Amino acid sequence: MKRIRAVSNFFTVLMLALCVYLCLYSALSYRKLFDNDYNGRTRLLSGQNRRGDIYSSDGYLLAHTAAVVDDTGNITEKREYPFGSIFAHIVGYSAYGRSGIEDLEDYYLVRSNISLSKKAEYAENSEKYPGNTVITSLNAMLQCAAEEALRGYRGAIIVSEPATGRILACVSKPDFDPNTIAENWENITSDNSSGSLINRATQGLYPPGSTFKILDAAAFIEQDQEAAGEYSYECTGSITRDGQTISCYHGDIHYTVDFTDSFVRSCNCSFANIGLLLDRPKFFRLLDGLYFNRPLPFDLPAAISRAPKEAGSDADIMQLSIGQGTLVMTPLHMNMITAAIANRGIMMQPYVIDSVVTAQGDDLTVFHPRELKRAMSSTAAEMIASMMEETVLGGTARGIRNERYTAAGKTGSAEYSDTGSQSHAWFTGYAPAEDPRICITVVLEGAGSGSQAAVPAAKHVMDAWFDTH
Ligand SMILES: [Zn+2]
Predict the structure, then answer these.
(1) How far is the CA of 157 from the centre of ligand 1 (A)?
(2) From ligand 1's centre to the CA of 272, what distance in Å?
(3) pLDDT of amino acid 447
(4) 95 has a pLDDT exceeding 50
């Protein structure tokens, strides 16, 4: 009897859970339900409306549905992407499944909110109603510059506006042409396509290498600002603790370094030492608060950056301090953290849509910047900002230094092969240093050192921005 009651209780709980789940599901994901390809309503709408346009914030058409007459004289529709592969990942596609902004804003794109009198005009001409227009935050000029900088590489570049979180450019390589995705689907998804559908800027997980020193520095300053100010270390080229040896990049020896020198010259030994000085529970709380091991608040699919939740040994904390070991991050996440430094400690929510308007130009939805949280004290952000400026003036990112504009940044060369002989090149930074307008993060897979590969790519994009601003 007891057993039967237990079983029936179990099923009651299960049923209740299912009910709650279904209610929550339909309440929270009405857009998802709507988006379901099998939903008859979608088919109905696509028979009635022509899918809306997608524009860049600087007025370029990124996606458009054109009527085409096929061989048999029938009128069909074709989704066209005037920039070809340049916006492939971020704008996405809608021909063979959906991705990117095409998927995110499908709800609006398939609907037409033009006035009834306008609808009557279209109906009179037996034309479909024009769908709503999505205006993205993307800047076509910057996107093209970022795509140029990535040519010949695999990797990603993401550019944002620090004060607002607006994404200005987002490029991933290898890429694909969304105009021909249906025809080329087999090729694109085959084993040797190197995952060209993946948006590496938001879904690529890479060891951050020395760019992670930004977070060590934040933790160290927050822990004891005075100790950071008085810090001094004797670099001999390597440090061994717990059977783990950390070396400085390319066998460099930095000799006596203070906190700023350690950062500007990216001394691994000194940062392994700083890692050992950190209050570990506090450090892991800081990482937890900055979206490690949890989803980023971002509307498009993004991978979760993984960091250890506690350091088992000194060896672990030394590896973590130089951005190696089990730590992996997305370029988007690194960009958010860098933008928070530029923004004096305030982290903004990244977003890609400025507004949705009807085909007549009336606003339907306007997106506003949203503050996520204070990532660190303004003192810590300002100290790190000045060290990042020094890094451009005379450190590992001096390749950006120029007469036209100031910049701030941090490089990284993140080892990923078992032998440690190959590394991903990173740069993350912003410009101008005194009034940050663009924040850029670059990752080039297997391209070697951040200084030699990622810095020139970042400079190419910054130059393009300052050419027009
Ligand atoms: Zn060193």
Answers:
(1) 28
(2) 10
(3) 94
(4) yes
pTM: predicted TM-score of the whole model, two decimal places: 0.91
CA of 227 from ligand 1 middle (Å) equals: 19
Euclidean distance between CA atoms 254 and 83, whole angstroms = 47
Cα of 261 from ligand 1 centre, angstroms = 10
What would the two tokens of residue 3 be? 């057993």
How remote is the C-alpha of 393 from its chain's centroid?
Answer: 27
Local confidence band at 43 (pLDDT 50, 70, 90 cut-offs) = confident
Inside any domain, residue 357: no
Q: Is residue 218 assigned to a domain?
A: yes
Number of domains in the chain: 1
State the distance from the centre of ligand 1 to the C-alpha of 324, rounded, in angstroms.
16
Residue 195, domain member (yes or no): no
Q: Residue 134 forms beta bridges with which residues?
A: 54, 356
- Can you say how many angstroms the Cα of residue 109 is from the centroid of all Cα atoms in its chain? 24
Residue 382: CATH number of its domain: 3.40.710.10
Quote the CA–CA distance of 35 and 434 in Å, as a whole number.
Answer: 44
Which residues have their alpha-adjacent CB atom under 5 A from ion ligand 1?
Answer: 235, 248, 254, 267, 269
Domain of 250? Answer: 209-351+371-468
- Kindly give the distance from the C-alpha atom of residue 290 to the centroid of ligand 1, in angstroms, as a whole number: 27
Does 122 map to a domain?
Answer: no
